[in-house]
């Protein structure tokens, strides 16, 4: 039986990340990149698909306590036994050449016997490597992959059942470090890292970065942990930010809504940029903006909703039949077929991001403006077409209201930029007319006057949590009765025990999929923002407090939450959820002194 999703913590080196459970097992790790095949895949299968557990011998349960060291992504996990207490410190150093996973065992009290079981399985658990000893190291090789395991000091290890075992004792103050290093099998072994020096350097690096956080309002620790998580989900060589480091963690246990999120979505761009800029992370915001410009370059008609870490366009979807899935949630997928979809909202997200960057002083040169005008030329006609919408539905295309509004945003931000800087070229009169046309069309065809709410798509009675973004987008003033009515309707009709679904999956054919899903966490953050904007700040704060309580013990959030079972669902940790947390904290508390709201 798989452990709950919230039982995992994250360590990473800004190029990939590992998930470590409360029982000390690394159950997911892709090497060398976030989107590479996993060498530990127990998360989506079982231990035979790869894992690495370090824990006191004969202790089958979870740890007594665990926590990140303040301001870092260094994880401490501690066990108490009848013989004493022991700590395992996990981290991935900022890589110089090759990725390293470091696990340091330290005695806290007494004398504890510790067991390590390493079961490497390349290519998502399907390939058993050849293991051998070289210069006192254990070396695993299979096809293009090679991994080296060593300990300092050296401890007795042996092979059994295609796994590498080690056993040793530690007393108070004694330490044993394990280092697992990956490299292409055709290359020479990379230089060895000193695990103890790497620990100190990692702490220094993470804490120096955390020290630049400018937010000093209530719940600063939660905001900083979310920012550290976003930093960990950044692919440092390009500045792209993955939606999550995992694939196929289910939106419904036993269901088929299992997707690969190890890519970069344009839909996240404005909210991501806003979160980074508002917290004082200008360089990260610039790197993300530059990634966005590179990814979006080309024919505007070919703009995709997502890209690979370096802007790759081809992300073919396939199913891994040998993996049973998290708690029998199949299929397990890699790649994402939604990359082929038309989602008109991404044009608005890109243009809004460029406008936000420009206002914040992140100038990008004339090529960025030329790209923006090219996107607007495409939208001149395309805005009126149906699309798959923000949520990447796999049903038929529809005239989604949120998509139309974001097309309006693209035009509106361009007009505003030209009004602020008359030197910018472009036909502003044509764009003003287009902006008015889209606005009028949405208000006439996307609004249900009888119920006093905007709808999910033209002619429907369905609602969509993305409608909560209308006041943030500036489509109508927050106090407009149509906005207030929409917030009330969404809260009433999409509420699931106080949290929000994206849209109704009951009796609806919108997404073209069977089954159900949990409450989508970022939507509840959007509700808190909208409630605050329409003057219901106390209610917004209460909702925000409830959302904070859904984080796991180390402050992480998945994509969704099941309020009935009290469990997190979906890929984990989810960038969108943590972006929502940061932005809502900024919305609610940016002008309050630290600690005023708890």
UniProtKB/TrEMBL annotation:
Q: What is its EC number?
A: 3.2.1.28
Keywords recorded for this protein, A-Z: Carbohydrate metabolism, Glycosidase, Hydrolase
Its domain of life?
Bacteria
Q: Which GO terms describe its biological process?
A: trehalose catabolic process
Stored SUPFAM superfamilies:
Six-hairpin glycosidases
The keyword Protein biosynthesis belongs to this UniProt entry's keyword annotation: no
The protein's annotated pathway: Glycan degradation; trehalose degradation; D-glucose from alpha,alpha-trehalose: step 1/1
Q: Tell me its cofactors.
A: phosphate
Reactions catalysed, semicolon-separated, are: alpha,alpha-trehalose + H2O = alpha-D-glucose + beta-D-glucose
What GO terms are given for molecular function?
A: alpha,alpha-trehalase activity
List membrane-spanning regions: none
InterPro entries found in the cross-reference section? 6-hairpin_glycosidase_sf, 6hp_glycosidase-like_sf, GH15-like, Trehalase-like_N
Enzyme type, top EC level: hydrolase
Every GH15-like domain range: 217-585
Ranges for domain Trehalase-like N-terminal come to 3-140
Which Pfam families does this chain map to? Glyco_hydro_15, TREH_N
What the entry lists under PANTHER family is as follows: GLUCAN 1,4-ALPHA-GLUCOSIDASE, TREHALASE
Family membership noted in the UniProt record = Belongs to the glycosyl hydrolase 15 family.
Q: What is this protein called?
A: Trehalase
